[in-house]
Design brief:
The structure holds two protein chains of two kinds. By secondary structure, chain A is mainly α. Chain A is built from twelve helices and no strands. Chain A has a domain of about 210 residues: MetI-like (MetI-like fold). By secondary structure, chain B is mainly alpha-helical. Chain B is about 75% helix and about 0% strand. The chains are: A mainly alpha, B mainly alpha.
Chain lengths: ~300, ~290
Amino acid sequence: MIKYFLKRLISILPVLFVVSILAFAFVHLLPGDPARMMAGTDADEATVEMLRKEMGMDRPLPIQYLTYMKNMATGDLGKSLRTKLPVYDEIMLRYWPTMYLAITGMAWSVVIGVLFGAAAAVYNGRWQDYTAMLLSVSGISVPQFWLGLLAIQLFAVHLGWLPVAGYTGKFSELILPSFTLGATVAAVMARFTLSAFLEVLDEEYISTARAKGVAEFLVMWKHAFRNALIPVVTMVGLQFGFLLGGSVVVETVFAWPGIGRYMIEAVGVRDYPVLQALLLLYSFHFVFINLLVDMVYALINPEIRYE
Amino acid sequence: MNKKIAITQKKTPFSIFLHKFKQRKTAMIAGIFIVLLVLIAVFAPLVAPHDPFKVDYGSSMMPPSFEHPAGTDLYGRDILSRIIYGSRISLAVGFTSVFVGALAGVTLGIISGFFGGFLDGLIMRTSDVLFAFPGILLAIAIVAILGPGLVNVVVAVSLFSMPTFARIVRGSTLALKESLYVRAATSLGASKKRLMFVHILPGTLSSVIIYFTMRIGTSIITAASLSFLGLGAQPPTPEWGAMLAESRDYIGVADHMTIFPGAAIFLTVLFFNLFGDGLRAALDPKTK
C-alpha cells in the first residue's frame, strides 16, 4: 500500500515540473519583450532596461527559472502590474471565496447526482429513470453562464428571494452561484452512477443474493449501491477540477470575488504575473486532487494495489 | 433464390448499426434537428427575417412580437436573425475545433500505442500535462497569449480536445495490435504505415466517432463561454455567447435578450449530446 502511494507520488513530479516550466515560459511565450510589457508602452528605454535588470531578465533562462522557483517556494509570486501589490496577497484575498463556492457546489451536486443516478438504476426503464436521465442530459447541455443568468432573472430579480450577485459572507449569497456551478457536475454524476450501478447489477453476486432470497431493497442498497460507489469516487475527483474551471465563468456571472473572476480581469488588463501565478495554482490543485483520488481509490479498491 | 432478398439479408456492420440506431427514437429526432440546424446555418441569409447588423434605435429592446419573434436587442437589432447567423459561428467553431483536435489526437494516439517505448511515454506525459489544466483554463491561457478572437478560440479548444482523442485511440491500438488479424497482416509483411492506418485505424473509429459527437457539444459551450467572457467573438459579431454578455446588464428589463440566445446554445448542445448517446448505444456491441 505504502509502496503504491510512493510510486504514485513520484509519478506526479515530472508533471509538476513541466507545469512549472510552462507557467514560467508563459511570460516568455507572449509576443514582445516581457520587460517592455511590464514597464508599459510609453516607458523610455532606460526604464525598460532597469526593469529588465531588476527582474533578472538579462540572465540566462535556466537561471531565471531557478530564481523563479526559489521565489515561489518562499511565497514570492511577484507583483501585480495593475495594483503593484504582491500577487500572493491578491490571491489570498480571493482564494477562500472560490473554495467555498467550489466545495458547496461539489457537496450538493455529488449527493443529488448519486441519488438520482441510483434511483434511475433501481427504477430502470420506468418513468423515474427517464426523468432522471432527461434532467441529466439537460444538465450536461446547459451552458453554465446561461443557467446563472436565468437563475438571477427568476430568483433574484423577479421573485426577489435571493441577492443578485456579490459576496459579503452571507449564506444567501452562496445559494445561486453554488447551484449554478454544481448543476453540470450533478448531471455528470447521475449518468456515471447509473452506468456504474447497472454494471454492478449484472454481477453474479447480485444474482446469488437474489437467489438466496435477500430482500430486493437490501440487494439494491447493500450489495449493489456500495460496490457501484467505487468508480464514482474517481469521478468526484475529476469533477472537482472541472468545477474549478467552471468557477471562472460562474464567478464572472455572479460578480463573485474569487480567483476565477480575478483571472478574467487579469487577462483583460494583461496582468501577466497574476496570470502566471493563477495558472500554476489551478494546475497544482488539479494534479493534487487527482493524486488524492487515486489514493482513496486504492484504499477502497484493493485490486488496484496489486497491479 | 431471388437475388434481392439475399442482399437485404446480408448483415454488414453498418446495417446492424443502422438497425440499432433507428430504435433510438430520441437520437433519431436529435439527428433530424442537427440536419435542420446545419441547413439553417448554411441558408442563413434566406431564413433570417431581418439583417442581423441593422441598427434601429427606435425599437431598442422590444419584447417579442410578430415583427421580431425573439424581440430586439439594445441597438434594436432583430435577435432571431442574430441567432440564425450565430448558428453559423457556433457550428463552425464546434466542428472545426473538434475535427482538428481529433486529427492530431488520433494520429498521436496510434503512434503512441503502436510504437510504445519512448515516443509513447513522451506523448502520454504531454497529454498528462494538458490534462493538468482544466479545459477552459487552458483555453483562457492560450487566448491570453494569442489574443482574443474566434480563430484563437478554435486553436485553444482543439488543443484541449486532443489529449482525450490520443488516449482513447492509444487504448484501442494497444488492444488491436495483439489481435489475430493484425498479426496475420504483420506475418504477410505489411509495412508499419499500412498496419497503422489500414488495419488498426478503422478498428478505433467507432470510439472516435462517439467521442467526436459528444465533444462538439462541449466545444460549442466552451467557445460560447469564452465569447461571453469577452475573449472570443467580439461585438458586433452575432455570436450566442457574446449576445448573452450584452444582455447581462438588462436582466429584469429585457428578459428575452437572455432567454433566446441561451436557449439556442442549450438546444444545439442537447441535440448533439442526445445524438452522441444514440451513437454510443448503437455502436456498442454489448447492446442488442
